[in-house]
Each structure stands twice: as structure tokens, then as C-alpha cells.
Amino acid sequence: MKDAFGLPQSLLVLGGTSEIALAVTRRLIARRTRTVWLAGRPSPGLDEAAGQLRALGAEVHTVDFDALDPAGHEDALGKVFAEGDVDMVLLAFGTLGDQARDERDPQAAVRVAQTNYTGAVSAGLVCAGALQAQGHGSLVVLSSVAGERARRANFIYGSSKAGLDSFAQGLGDALYGTGVHVMVVRPGFVRTRMTAGLPEAPLATTPEAVATAVELGLRRRSETVWVPGALRVVMSALRHLPRGVFRRLPV
């Protein structure tokens, strides 16, 4: 069960090799989390991540999970919940894609959408149902400021995150009053392997900073968390710019 400050004792991570997710997990282990399930496609990276977390003192299990296999989500994730209550689910899988390539290859673009949105809808609903059945828990969804307004530079990725963000907000409303808390996390540019080599955007942040914000959000039972917080004002301004002006911005 969670403590009085909303921090989980047990954690299921969807996207078990995500640098952001692992930073969040390390921080929570340092606070209170003792049992972790890392869900992802079997790989040396997943095994290595599990080993590193075990070295921090947590009991860690790996779960075979593929965002692109919605038909298998209920079975794979159901086995985790069958082991006992899960205090928090962190939905952190996703792919950035390659905008220039994906515009020329519709199937590659569809794969981005299926991973970031369709897979998240499936897994999110499975986990939400299980959390509701147990009567408590948090579902933390890693979104992105890219979903706030489609940009020429990454509108395929941004549109998939916009869908995810809207879904998560609606799910939070649907679960209000059930004992299940949904928190949407909207980071800006995060320095990870996924963004390596890309031009760094203003207000760039780190996985550790996102982890700090997630912890604070859990303690406050926030519904939306911006990382860094200043992005809330920046994105509000960008979202309301006239389209003709927005098109001329170097974004």
C-alpha cells in the first residue's frame, strides 16, 4: 500500500528499459518502493536494468510485454496483478520515430502511432481496470509537451502524444472517485539515448529531474505535471499563437 505521502510500495513499469522510467524507479526505491515489475520485450537491456535495481535493494521481476501486441496485454499484465496489489503503474514506453523518414514511409509512421497511442490505450485500460478492481493505486502516464501543438518538425510523434495525453486525461476523469489516481507527466526535451544527436531545445531537462517531479506530483496527488514547470506557461503561449505566426517560428 502507499504511504501517507502517496509513494508506492509496489510498482509496475511499462517500458522497462526507458531511461526516464528507470530514473523514476530508482528514486522511488530510495524512498519506499520494494517490489518492481519491469515490463518490456525480453532483451539484455531489460535484464541489465533489473539487475541494477536489485542492487538497490528492491525485489525485481521482468515481464514479457510488447506495446505492439494489444491482444496479449490482458494476459501479460493480468499475471502481475494476480501476484498481489500494485500501488503504481508507470506507463513509459514510446518511440520518437524519424519524422523525415516516416513521412515517406506511412507504415513506419503507423508504427509510431501504434506504439505511442494504440498500445498505450490498450495497456492503460487493462491496468486501470485492475487498479479499480483492487480499489486503489496510481497510473502515471509519461506524455510530452510535443502533444500540446503539432509542429512541422515532429508532427507524427506529437500527434501520437496528443492522443495519449487526451486519453489519459479522460481516463483520469472516468476514474475520479474510485480510489485510482491518474497523473499525466508532460516533460519537454529530455536528454536521453532517444534524443541523442538531436538539436537541444530550450528548457531541456534530464531523467532525474523528471523523476523528482513525479515524486512531488505523487505526494501532491497532482493530475498534471510539467517538467520543467516553466513549460506550462511557454506551451500555453505557443498553443494560442495564430497559425500563421506559429508556422514561422523555428520549431
Automatic annotation (TrEMBL):
Keyword Oxidoreductase (UniProt): yes
Keyword Glycoprotein listed: no
Molecular-function annotations in GO: oxidoreductase activity
Enzyme class, first EC level, given as a word: oxidoreductase
EC number annotated for this UniProt entry: 1.1.1.333
Keywords annotated in UniProt: Oxidoreductase
One Pfam entry name: adh_short
Entry similarity comment: Belongs to the short-chain dehydrogenases/reductases (SDR) family.
Record's protein name: Decaprenylphospho-beta-D-erythro-pentofuranosid-2-ulose 2-reductase
Source species: Streptomyces cellulosae
